[in-house]
Design a protein that fits this description.
Shape: globular
Strand content: over 45%
Order of helices and strands: EEEHEEE
Structural class: mainly beta
Radius of gyration: 13 Å
Number of strands: 6
Distance between the termini: 14 Å
Oligomer: single chain
Number of helices: 1
Largest sheet: 4 strands, antiparallel
Number of domains: 1
């Protein structure tokens, strides 16, 4: 289940503006378990673009993305993912 929840973090640096979009992904693994993880991408403000990047990365033969589950970093490999679904409700982290 792919649930998009957007958080935009705007950081003001030395005359630089960084926009980071954060989406929450509900992933169904090949074992049948599901996992909710947060994925963020700097420089993207559109949640659709961030979700598409995650899907494209996981679809590659050696695809992986770096995500967070609570305060832990989780590397999610595409070969272990059975499904990504879109839902109107937010995931629980």
């Amino acid at each position: 289940m792919l649930t998009i929840m957007v958080n935009l973090a705007i950081t003001y640096g030395s005359s630089r503006l960084t926009i980071m979009a954060d989406v929450v992904l509900r992933v169904r693994l090949i074992t049948g378990d599901s996992l909710d993880v947060a994925y963020e991408e700097a420089g993207a403000s559109d949640p659709g673009e961030v979700a598409e990047h995650a899907i494209t990365a996981l679809a590659a033969d050696s695809g992986m993305i770096r995500t967070r589950h609570g305060d832990r970093v989780v590397i999610l490999y595409g070969r272990g993912v059975a499904a990504l679904e879109l839902a109107p409700r937010g995931a629980v982290l």
